[in-house]
Amino acid sequence: MSFSLLSDDECIRILSHLEEPELDLVAEVSKTCARVARCDAVWASRAKDLCARYTFDRRDFEGNFLYLLEQDPLLPAYDGPPLRMPYLTPENSGQGDRKIDDMGLQHRCYPSAQRGRAPSERERVWVTTEFPVTCCGARHASRAALEQHCLDMCHYERMQSARGNGRLPDSWIDPRLRLGQAAFTALPKREQYLRVHLYVAKVLPEIEVMSDPENWDVLDKANLERLSRQGLAFLEELIAGANRDGFDEDLFDELVACCRAELEPTAIGEHICAAVAEGFRAAGVYSEVPNVPYFSVRDFLTSGLAGCDPDGGSSSGAQWWSGVSEIFEHHYEGELSW
Asked: What are the residues whose beta carbons fall under 8 Å from the beta carbon of 207, sequence distance 6 or more?
């Protein structure tokens, strides 16, 4: 039966049972489908599913970059004329050297004659660049305008690039963060669907490419070998010192054998890459990778596996190693006491 003989509601009921590839095929050959597809109702359920796929907790950095901006607003370095009478040198070393006030953008400087002193021993002089000030190539006329600009996701990415931390292309940034949740929700449902769909379609293939061991570079492999050595040394300590009273010996030996395999460099890399894909699907590129502390999906996309140091904090070991292998989970849960 031709779509042209059906009512819009009947077309919608039929289209709602099709998957995306099937919808694409129908849309290519049916003018009626194209007309009906412009109705919000066709896309409502799909948009609702996609728009709920990622959640952003504004009280926490997981899934959100604003937590970092509260501590370090990523203000631009001083780029004005040389400071004379007295001669001053801008610090421009990072957090704490720049701040916004009602007059403009302030930069902490020190007398150039004190260049040889330790930073803590230098005199501090604040120099103000009055509004309007330039950031990310745009002029900002007031404190409110600059502070609002600093909350923009594209500002965050540009300033990360300026600090040598790499930058994500705009198409890899979740449109809900780039536009703001309120502005995104105000879009037609089909437009919401298309923007999120395009975002996912841009990032997931890149994660898949970077997850292929054939594409790991020398630095990636060197870091995985380091993590492997670290894990195998931990395993040997556990084997030598564990009190296995009440723990099945055959099960213990089986867990040890599995752990050795899971601690091979390639196995660790595949574990991290799988967690990256899971983290992206759950919360987007700014989420911390599950079971891989201190490593976000963004870190993976900008620095690869070379930038992964999941056991770098005082409390991250249990989360990291228990995620890698079951035997470490038994150890941290006290089932293999020392």
From this structure: 273, 276, 277, 280, 297, 300, 301
